[in-house]
Design goal:
mainly alpha
Length: about 325
């Protein structure tokens, strides 16, 4: 391979990433190179990012089904399916950036895919524990209650991690490099749609709007900063000095958003399966990940309030 061709491929690969600020080490070492290979193949075959996302959903469901069985080789097969699903989850975003096939439905579908994977996994763990654990066999309702609470926490963890990444990307790359939305803007789009003539589009936008509202309600400090920035810089031309300063404060929190995403979550899941105690995964989410979530929200809100005060004092 010529040096020029190699440099071009390296450049194309880097362009398929969101940003080095928000990438996680395991992703860079493993999932992103594999995802890039899948994305290049899909591009040659004319496969769209949404098709890859749908394929990842079925792979994730297969993984969940495999985790129901208390047989290690079947569990390992499920682990491989989940890794395959996540490589597709990486590929769909990389393909979208390579081909500029961005869409809100793609973003919604991408978020939904992980929810479907883990919903299947949660159900499989509950059914498995009720069949194999004497403790839960005597209290069959308990594991379901734990799973529901854990699922709610999981959804909140993933939503906030994604929201903070998008806010970081907004200061790093601007509006074009971020998928940051506002509930006010989404509601105005909803009002222009009819349930009779735009049923599916309005349904998906309604779900997405509610998702965004939930994110905003948990980040009052961030919303205050966003409102002040909009008032102070209505054109969106935020001074580069402010962007750089916010990025510097936000960057240390990106490692926590990554822990709350896929890789460390699945490491805990796989460990619990190897130990033949899948309920430990629920304990990990309820304790370690919820603790990280609270710390991350508190720190990020403090950062936003500090920058709001600096703007009000005329520093920028």
């Amino acid at each position: 391979m010529s040096e020029r061709k190699h440099d071009a491929e390296v450049s194309d690969y880097r362009a398929s990433l969101k940003s080095m600020d928000t990438e996680e080490g395991i992703d860079l070492a493993f999932y992103r190179p594999i995802g890039y290979a899948w994305a290049r193949l899909a591009k040659r075959l004319g496969v769209t990012p949404n098709v890859i996302t749908v394929a990842s959903i079925f792979l994730g469901i297969g993984a969940g089904v495999a985790f129901y069985y208390p047989v290690m080789w079947i569990n390992v097969l499920g682990m491989l399916l989940l890794v395959w699903a996540n490589s597709f989850d990486s590929a769909d975003g990389q393909l979208a950036r390579m081909t500029h096939q961005y869409s809100r439905i793609g973003r919604i579908l991408d978020g939904l895919s992980g929810d479907v994977w883990f919903a299947t996994i949660y159900v499989a763990i509950c059914l498995r524990e009720n069949c194999t654990s004497e403790f839960f066999m005597a209290r069959p309702w308990l594991i379901w209650v734990v799973a529901v609470v854990t699922g709610i926490c999981h959804a909140k963890q993933a939503a906030m991690a994604d929201y903070y990444r998008q806010f970081h990307l907004y200061f790093l790359k601007g509006e074009e490099g971020s998928e940051l939305e506002s509930s006010a803007g989404l509601r105005s789009q909803l009002a222009a749609l009819s349930w009779k003539h735009n049923f599916w589009k309005k349904l998906t936008l309604t779900v997405y709007t509610n998702y965004t509202v939930s994110q905003e309600q948990s980040t009052r400090g961030m919303q205050g900063l966003r409102a002040l920035l909009q008032k102070r810089f209505p054109s969106g031309r935020i001074p580069q000095s402010f962007r750089d300063a916010f990025r510097a404060k936000s960057l240390p929190l990106m490692k926590y958003t990554n822990i709350l995403s896929f890789n460390w979550r699945t490491i805990a899941l796989f460990a619990s399966l190897f130990l033949q105690m899948p309920w430990l995964y629920f304990a990990f989410e309820l304790t370690v990940l919820n603790g990280l979530l609270v710390m991350m929200v508190v720190r990020h809100e403090r950062i936003c309030r500090n920058f709001t005060r600096q703007l009000e004092d005329g520093k920028y």
